[in-house]
Amino acid sequence: MTSASREHRLNAAFVMVADSLTDDYDVVDLLHTLVSECTEIVNVQAGGLLLLDADGELQVVASTTESAELVEVLQLAAGAGPCLDCFATGEQVSVPDVAAAARWPAFQEEALRRGFRSVHAIPLRLRGDTIGTMNLFGTSVGALSARDASAAQALADVATISILQQRVSAHAQLIAEQLQRALDSRVLIEQAKGAVAQVNGTSMDESFTLLRRYARDRNLSLHALAEAITNRSLPISALTTSHEDVRMSSRRPAARKQE
Amino acid sequence: MTDAFYTGSGAPPAGIPEWEWGDDLCAPFVELLPVSGASISVLRRDGDATTVCTSDALAQRLDAMQFALGEGPRWVVARTAKPSFSADVARESHPDWPVFGAGLPTLGVSALFAFPILTGPVLLGVVDLYRRSPGALDRDATARALSLARRVAAPAVREAMRAAADEGSPEAKRHSLRREVHQAVGMVFVQLDVTTAEALELLRAYAFSTGRPLEDVALDVVDRALDFRDLPG
Fold first, then answer.
1. CATH fold of B3-165
2. pLDDT of residue A242
3. A23 and A147 share one domain
4. For B186, which of A168, A179, A194 is closest by C-beta distance?
5. CATH code of the domain occupying B179-230
6. How far is B27 from chain A (nearest CA, A)?
């Protein structure tokens, strides 16, 4: 790759990641593109990205080839190899000659068998936290130049920001949904209480007791019952007329329900 | 001000004091900012809001007005997720909230500020601040308000969810979750055989036309002093 085209490609990669911070995007697509661009820019033959999952395991999230060979090598390296060391220390780990890397025998054997003679592992980190590693594999012996190592680290850094932002966003969405659900439930239940109180001439507390009893007898959540009443798919008269039948005929064991 | 200024990071900027979040989520806004009072609301779908706290009677009044009228700085923030600043409500025009704005001078409110409560990119609620005297919030106060608004997100959500799950404790009755309004909706829904959305609109319209707060009308309905079947038209 010429110097000019390398620069161009590197700039294009940064622009793509910057765009992803503001647009709707798929983070896995982004990571695939990042790892393949990085591999091309620093002129290695394969690359893969490992991320820590919720259970504390390093998982292969993206790689330049789906082939089992690379994935297996990555997984071995995540168990005991340069990728794990990189993750544990938060520092780049360079293995210019895999044949000399006797400290990881299983990884070494597999990597050599697949034709990978050199490895370079780059940490994905932000403010002291390492969330994974970007791992570059060469078919010839030799370390990355300082310039290439630096470019790879810069790409890894922006990838990290992107991943973390997507997680914050997903987490925030989840919280917002749970909140809406709780608030909606409360509104529906109060509306249903009012409706029952109007029809039966009862107090709000008595109405609530009626709703709760009906819900328990039929293994319904209060939310679902209130919804059925307020959209008129269940007539309020059903709450009083069928209670006696259910009480006499039901042998249902008590069950815990979501409210 | 750029977007980066608004989105910020999790850590408070240097110079902004930490706050131990106790029961009163409004307190830090009143203690640490040059304002007279505050209220915090959490947004529901359908343009509704649940009030988590109000610092004083006037804050409560302003909160109730914005809810009843469906207009006010809070709703602008709810749409835009950007802060709203009115340093001198008497002198400024308010194309977004003409009716709400017209009622402010008699209440003695001279300045209003509203800040989005954000978690990541998601807007969860609004902090409404008022002051009895006019005057803008300076840069430091604005940064402080934005930071506090971000940090109140988790406690406000927890409080709103806790209150929503609470069925009958005395605290549940004290919280301004407007239970009577929703109960009244249920009653009118039956009385007039309309949808719950229509019932709410009818209650709002009646409150507006009689110049009474929506909560008071709702109480009358729940106490059976007011039956919508008796109303003309």
1. Beta-Lactamase (3.30.450)
2. 56
3. yes
4. A194
5. 1.10.10
6. 23
A115 and A65, same structural domain? yes
> Which residue range is the domain that position A224 belongs to?
174-249
Q: ipTM of the predicted structure?
A: 0.73
pLDDT digits (tens, 9 = 90+) for A172-195: 888 888 888 888 898 999 999 999
Compute the nearest-CA separation of A160 from chain B (Å).
Answer: 16
Residue A34 lies in a domain: yes
**Mean of the per-residue pLDDT values for chain A?**
86
* Cβ pair B115, B77 in contact under 8 A: yes
Is A255 within a domain?
no
Within 10 angstroms of residue A219's Cβ, the number of other Cβ atoms is 11
CA of B33, closest CA in chain A: separation in Å? 27
CB nearest A194 (choices: B45, B161, B185): B185
Q: CA nearest A239: which of A201, A198, A200?
A: A200
| CA B213 – CA A225 distance, rounded (Å) | 30
Q: Is B201 on the interface with A (CB under 8 A)?
A: no
**How distant, in Å, are the alpha carbons of A168, A173, A174 from that of B7?**
12, 16, 19
Query: Where do we find the tokens 């059976």?
Result: B224
Least confident span in A81-85, A109-113, B5-9: B5-9
**Of A185, A239, A244, A249, nearest to A215 (Cα)?**
A239
pLDDT greater at residue A253 or residue A49: A49
